[in-house]
Amino acid sequence: MIEMIDVYKTYPNGVLAVNGINVKINPGEFVYVVGPSGAGKSTFIKMMYREEKPTKGTIRINDINLGKLKESKVPLLRRNIGVVFQDFKLLPKLTVYENVAFALEVIEESPKNIKRRVMDVLDLVRLKHKARFLPDELSGGEQQRVSIARSIVNNPKVMIADEPTGNLDPETSWEIMNIFEEINTRGTTIVMATHNREIVNTIRKRVIAIENGKIARDEVRGDYGYES
């Protein structure tokens, strides 16, 4: 599903963010990516959806070699990978329904299928009743749920989440995690970078800890392992 082989990433300023990572994530896994600030977590995550390219090494997702992928094919790759960000990245002038539908409109899905699929995923994230609301009429947790709905509306095999609970209060964070767990039980592989010690230690999953650009720990049912 996801494989990195001898991956390095050096930025133009000389910072070595990823230093010889080898990792394999199997279909259906739920993986936390943890580590101190500046350890290389964000770069590790961004390389999975080609926001960043490795300086050296091989990255494969769904048998696609990201290093050899033409720029013109990157949008297609991202349509098959759901990405959820800390700051939601919703389109402010579009309704909840329109934000989620947009991902299907760009691939020219039929209006009938768009309506059915959008309402299905809004039901999953418990926001069907707010389909006509604008993002600024929602709470932070509701906006994140819209972001999750948008990321899964294309039925991606892989979902990548970069600090998805970082801007949310504890109660809302647990609601978001329940949704992620439900998505995972439906077969979607989830890779989540997080600083939330309590979530990692309570909802035990595989933990990959990155320190100084290297994998320091890779545990099947790991704990957070750092002071938060």
From TrEMBL:
Molecular function terms from GO: ATP binding
Membrane topology: Peripheral membrane protein
CDD domains linked: ABC_FtsE
Family affiliation: Belongs to the ABC transporter superfamily.
Protein name: Cell division ATP-binding protein FtsE
Domain of life: Bacteria
SUPFAM superfamilies tied to this protein: P-loop containing nucleoside triphosphate hydrolases (SSF52540)
Gene Ontology BP terms: cell division
Domain ABC transporter: 2-228
Location(s), subcellular: Cell membrane
Main localization, broad class: membrane
Keywords (A to Z) from UniProt: ATP-binding, Cell cycle, Cell division, Cell membrane, Membrane, Nucleotide-binding
Role: Part of the ABC transporter FtsEX involved in cellular division.
Subunit structure: Homodimer. Forms a membrane-associated complex with FtsX.
